[in-house]
Specification:
2 domains; transmembrane transporter activity; Rossmann fold; six-stranded mixed sheet; transmembrane helix; alpha/beta; 448 residues
Length: 448
């Protein structure tokens, strides 16, 4: 006897139902040989549709084993199971499950598109299948324009598109009238005669009578497995296998898949233009909102970091005396400009500057302002991170030469620029204001 095409051993399928476990299939053993027409019958809830889903690799058993041509499906991943369904299985459903936006030709071509079949071969095979099933004049009609029997024939053509060596039919006549149901069963009988293995799930014994074997399931167990009186061949008779057309390969196949995917997307969007527009608008608004929030957050972060840096968080100030506010600090002379040079030479120090400070009165003409004057080196501006609005910083030569050069801030700028009102100057840079501290007034040049 030939090895079975489909073999099931100790199959069990259970589902959680609240705190209980619902056992749908329990200890099922079954062999189906190539070329058989098998009917699985039983009442609603008996487990026959669950068994067909497992045989078609649409579901996995909770326990037990299932082999296809000797290959255990329990060891196959989702991609391998999908490839098995694509190349060897065809499905016929009670409610057809056709895509309403596609014509009969478009629905039949869907499996071939996923298989990467070349477009020319795909179109030729689709036309031949529909013509054979009596839909030659209706192949460009959509499901809504076809009768129930015609829709079921479209689903049969779809099941055969990639070869359909094994056809699973779940209540194929359940939604049809008597005449259409007989036509569908006649087609299934012809496919069986050509060598297709057909697994038929039904609760109608008249439909099951067309099969070679009738397997009855009750409460998740096989209670009967008998040949019918109309069986025309032994169960182990060899049956020819229908070969699927060869797939396209290389860049051309990839190009065809991309084009077909793009066409399918357009066809899916075209009947629902308003919904598509609103969906795209929502996506655009969402992306724009995310980008805006990220941009605002990044900008705010940069501003905060800049403000923190301006506070001198990476700057250490060293004062003489025992502590901050020591009244004797002015008399302490342990800190010298040489200490600043020594600190600047350390590898972890970017720059260092010595400074002394006092208060003075800035004068320009008849205008005065109380100011704080600091004596600093040329490194002061880098240490403080200062930028000039006008003029320039003084350099090392000005410090070594003890030149009377000043850089003023905006508050001190007003009395220095008083001459602007008389039209003699437009900037503070280059002016020569004076300063009076503890002694005689001293003139200086404003560099910036």
């Amino acid at each position: 006897m030939n090895e079975p095409l489909l073999r099931v051993r100790g199959l069990r399928r259970e589902f959680p139902a609240g705190e209980q476990i619902l056992v749908v299939l329990d200890g099922v053993d079954l062999d189906i040989h190539a070329g058989e027409l098998v009917a699985i019958v039983g009442q609603s809830g008996s487990g026959k549709s669950t068994l067909m889903n497992i045989l078609g690799c649409l579901d996995r058993p909770s326990a037990g084993s299932y082999e296809v041509q000797g290959q255990p499906t329990g060891q196959m991943g989702p991609d391998a199971l999908a490839e098995l369904r694509l190349e060897h299985f065809g499905f016929i459903f009670q409610r057809y499950h056709l895509l309403n936006d596609l014509s009969a030709v478009g629905n039949v071509e869907v499996p071939a598109i996923y298989a990467g079949m070349p477009a020319s071969v795909r179109h030729e095979r689709t036309t031949a299948l529909l013509a054979r099933l009596g839909l030659g004049e209706r192949m460009h009609h959509r499901p809504g324009e076809l009768s129930g029997g015609q829709q079921q024939r479209v689903s049969i053509a779809r099941a055969l598109m990639n070869g359909g060596a094994v056809i699973f039919a779940d209540e194929p006549t359940g939604a049809l009238d008597t005449h259409s149901g007989k036509e569908v069963m006649k087609i299934l009988g012809e496919l069986h005669a050509e060598g297709h293995t057909v697994v038929l799930v039904t609760h109608d014994m008249a439909v099951a009578g067309h099969a070679q074997r009738i397997i009855e399931i009750r409460d998740g167990r096989i209670v009967s497995d008998q040949p019918t009186a109309t069986a025309s061949a032994p169960l182990d008779a060899p049956a020819p296998a229908l070969q699927a057309p060869a797939e396209g390969g290389g860049l051309q196949a990839l190009r065809d898949r991309f084009i077909e995917a793009f066409r399918m997307a357009l066809r899916a969007m075209n009947p629902h233009r308003t919904r598509t527009f609103l969906t795209m608008l929502g996506i655009i608004i969402g992306i724009a909102s995310v980008v805006s929030v990220v941009a605002l957050g990044t900008g705010a972060r940069q501003v905060i970091l800049h403000n923190i840096a301006s506070l001198g968080t990476n700057t250490i100030e060293i004062y003489p005396g025992a502590g901050f506010g020591d009244l004797r600090a002015a008399q302490v002379e342990t800190l010298t400009p040489g200490d600043s040079v020594a600190l600047a030479g350390q590898p972890y120090v970017d720059s260092a500057k010595p400074s002394v400070a006092t208060t003075a009165t800035a004068m320009r003409g008849n205008r005065t302002a109380s100011t704080q004057v600091q004596g600093v080196s040329e490194q002061y501006f880098r240490v403080r991170g200062l930028e000039l609005g006008q003029g320039s910083f003084f350099g090392h030569a000005a410090v070594d030469g003890y030149q009377q050069v000043a850089v003023i801030d905006a508050n001190t700028r007003a009395p220095v620029r008083h001459a602007r009102r008389s039209g003699r100057a437009d900037t503070a840079a280059g002016q020569r204001p004076g300063a009076r501290g503890r002694g005689h007034p001293q003139g200086c040049r404003c560099a910036g």
